Amino acid sequence: MDAALHERVAGRPVEEARHRAFIVARLVVAACVLLSAPLFLFFDGAPTTSELVLFLLAQIPLASVIVLSRTGDLRIARSLSIGGWLTMATAIHALMPGYDALSIALLLVALVEAALTPDVGTIIVIEVVAIAALALTAGLNLRAPRELLTEHAATAMLLGAPLFLYIAALVLGAVRVEQARARAEARNDRDLMLLTGAVGDILLHLDRAGFVHAVLGDGRHVFDLKRDLVGREFFTRIHVADRPSFLKAVSDAVDGMAVATAAVRVQVGVARNASSEFVAPVFNSFEARVRRAQSNDGECAAEGVVCALRDVHATLEADIALAATHAAAERAATSNVRLLANVSHELRTPLNAIIGFSQMLATDEIAPSEPAKQREYASIISDSGNHLLEIVNSILDMSKIESGVMEIVAESFALPTLADQCCDMMQLQADQSGVTLAREYAETLGEIVADKRGCRQILINLLSNAVKFTPRGGTVKLALLLEGNHVVVTVADDGAGIAAGDLARLGDPFFQTRASLDSGREGTGLGLSMVCGLVGLHGGSITIESGLQVGTAVSVRLPLDCRNSGATGGPARIQTIARLGAPLSVAVVGGAEPATVKKIA
Predict the structure, then answer these.
(1) Ordered structural domains, the chain, with CATH
(2) pLDDT(566) > 50
(3) Buried-most residue among 11, 81, 446, 527 (CB within 10 A)?
């Protein structure tokens, strides 16, 4: 049996079962015919020419087995077998008068075989026509089966037994084929579930209009398969903007054999807003690969397609995150290059002054002889050295903050007392610039828990910038106000202010506004960056409100106890507000505690 099977059915259990059933049934008939030959000779003697013709025609089933074994084409072999039965029925009707009942029996056998062969429906029609034609020619003179058995008992038995065995073999073979088909389908479904479960795909059988007829695959982590996908439900879950591309992919797959792809967003759930009754759909991104469906024999199913649905939402999210990380890395690299350029520029200026004036003092030919000039050069060298030291210290502090090395030491202290000390330190600079320095403290403000050194540096930097960029006759005001569990430190001035285009870059290392560059006032551009870092370490926030010629107000919001602030350690973000109109006289937050004003002219 294995040798008779064609190689094209290897590894195809259902097709192999069909071939085996076909071969077994025909071999049974062929064996019965060959074994009945000696019995026929014993009972009827030497055969006639007609009987020899019928004996040869009875070998057609064996010939169909040989054709199937050589070609592997079951259609040709079945057509040859059924055609053999029709030919035998016609030959018996023509060559053996009185055996019309046997002809009808052979035609019925052919009809049963064709009925068990659904892919040769045309032959069934031919058989029906042949049976009607034989019945018409035989008329009503058909001998009864009892008369046939009486006159030709041996012949009827010898021919009837193979027919009975043949029909039994056909039925048994059909049962075996269906059993093999059921086992193969169960195994295919199990393997398909395992495969789709491993790769995460969902297979959909749908028509041209997107109507889902069947669902395969393990998609239960995303959908309730029957409720969410079967019928029109899947198409209604596709995002409206993606439906045309999905239907085009289905149409392209129906019209041709190529695989069509479409990127679709499918609703997988809803998101409810806790503060309202608003419900928003949640979509995941899927890749739909669509191909025209094929039957088991390789023919394309009419208007049917198979869609492999793959959830690529996590992949897209990862790609977006990777692109964002890459862009951030590029920005960081660009920022580092710009930072190095700024550092080089800031270090070069005081170093050039130190080297140049020290060389002048060390060279006898150009060294000034006047003591006043020498003191002036020495003062320039000292100022440049101090400026250089300030830059280096600021860079070191900024490096510690950005690398997460700097830690704050929380302690309890009176913020108004610290503010007074900082104002006293800035009073000389304010007097030299002709600026009025005013203070405004909340009466109920007591002690806070924070890093005292960091708070001092925040106040000094803010006051220094305000005094530096306030013209003679202007006013700088320091306000300490309570706001719930936070204290708001506001430094307001009525100076030159900041242009709206420069607000976005406030806090960048070494960045100086156009107003400060135009004024020619010396600065490193690191003060506000240092403030951002220190405020971030305390878990606070910064707001800057400014505009050209309308002054600036910087508000730093710090928790009363920084130990419970939940600070992440990164620099605080600056919220900027472009100010229009006249400068504010006092930067006061609405709802704050009453304040006591101290003013030092």
Answers:
(1) 7-182 (no CATH), 200-311 (3.30.450.20), 320-402 (1.10.287.130), 407-600 (3.30.565.10)
(2) yes
(3) 81
The pLDDT tens digits for 263-296 are 888 888 777 766 666 778 888 888 888 888 765 4
Reported as type and span, the H/E element at residue 388 is helix 371-403
CB atoms within 10 A of CB 550: 20
List Cβ neighbours of 250 (8 Å cut-off, separation of 6 or more): 206, 208, 210, 260, 290, 305, 307
Mean pLDDT of the 353-375 span = 84
- Amino acid code (one letter) for 159: L
Indicate if the pLDDT at residue 546 is higher than 60.
yes
pTM of the model: 0.43
According to DSSP, the residues that pair with 217 across neighbouring strands are 202
Task: Find tokens 């803010």 and name the residue.
Answer: 462
Long-range own/partner contacts, residues 340-346 (CB < 8 A, 24 or more apart) = 342/509, 342/510, 342/525, 343/391, 343/395, 343/510, 345/510, 346/391, 346/510, 346/524, 346/525
Q: Which of 491, 467, 465 is nearest to 477 (CA)?
A: 491
pLDDT at residue 334 greater than cutoff 80:
no
For every residue of 417-443, DSSP letters joined together read HHHHHHHHHHHHHHHHHT-EEEEEEET
Among residues 286, 320, 295, 290, the alpha carbon closest in space to that of 305 is found at 290
**By C-alpha distance, which of 258, 249, 239, 244 is closest to 206?**
249
Residue 458 has pLDDT above 60, yes or no: yes
Local structure of residue 542 (DSSP, 8 states): E
> Which strands, in side-by-side order, build the sheet including 279-294?
212-217, 201-207, 300-311, 279-294, 260-272
- Residues 109 and 428: their CA atoms lie apart, in Å, by 122
pLDDT of 490 above 90: yes
Q: What is the pLDDT of the chain when averaged over all its residues?
A: 75
Task: Give the mean pLDDT of 151-155.
Answer: 50
**294: three-class secondary structure by DSSP:** strand
Report strand pairing: 436-442 vs 475-483: parallel
